[in-house]
Design a protein that fits this description.
It is a single chain. The chain is an alpha+beta fold. The chain has 7 helices and 7 strands; from the N terminus they run αββββααβαααββα. The protein has a domain of 161 residues. The termini are far apart. It comes from Hamiltosporidium tvaerminnensis. This is Reverse transcriptase.
């Protein structure tokens, strides 16, 4: 969006036919007329192979015999100064080579701000060299802020959707103690079911399983038998 705004400004300055409204403006990679040649995000051919040869905007002012390389950057406040310096030095080799090829002066101008529109103390001088009116600068800052808000809102919505989706599909996990108790219950049940059978008189009987109540009954029966024997 920032490149598109700067591109439209340059087209009007160098008398290219263009849309008067930024929203309907489409960026073309290469434009050329009697006043200037403007390239956007295209590789600049040189006699020597140079790695950084694709500036955001390349302007050859034919009347002034001057080349301007513009590098746009939107970054965080912590990285603002670093990014601006990197953009300024990134095309030093390309600028030297272009000066030899075209036999003209070459300048590199960074256009850097944060996601919330903050700039460095050098930004004002960059604006002056680019001849950007303050109303255009204010419009660009508003676009950057709007895009930032839209991005944050989208990320929050997407994060909320992920959280809600996870909660809807999440299966309840039993507590560790309950799970252990269930597991022990299965083992006990299996153990009972696996008790051997005793055949008696053609009928199959399960081996009796002793429990507290059964043991009490047995003791009572024994006492009764003893009393009967003593009486006899």
């Amino acid at each position: 969006e920032v490149v598109r705004c700067l591109h439209l400004l340059l087209l009007n300055r160098y008398k290219f036919k263009s849309s008067k409204r930024i929203r309907s403006h489409s960026v073309q990679e290469i434009l050329d007329n009697e006043y200037a040649e403007i390239r956007v995000d295209t590789r600049i051919k040189t006699d020597v192979k140079i790695r950084n040869n694709r500036p955001d905007i390349f302007i050859l002012d034919k009347k002034k015999n001057k080349i301007t390389l513009i590098e746009v950057g939107i970054t965080s406040q912590d990285s603002l100064q670093i990014v601006e310096t990197e953009k300024l030095r990134k095309y030093d080799l390309l600028a030297n080579e272009l000066g030899l090829i075209y036999k003209c002066s070459v300048e590199i101008i960074p256009y850097v701000m944060t996601w919330d529109g903050i700039v460095t103390k050098y930004h004002k001088s960059h604006l002056k060299r680019l001849e950007i009116p303050m109303n255009v600068e204010a419009y660009i800052q508003s676009i950057v802020l709007k895009k930032t808000v839209e991005t944050i809102s989208f990320d929050r919505r997407r994060g909320l959707d992920v959280i809600l989706g996870a909660e809807m599909h999440e299966e309840p996990t039993p507590p560790l103690k309950e799970a252990k108790r269930d597991e022990d219950g299965v083992k006990t049940e299996n153990k009972k079911n696996n008790t051997p059978h005793i055949s008696q008189g053609g009928a199959t009987l399960e081996e009796p399983t002793n429990n507290i109540n059964e043991e009490s009954d047995l003791e009572e029966e024994t006492l009764v038998v003893k009393e009967v024997e003593e009486n006899i």
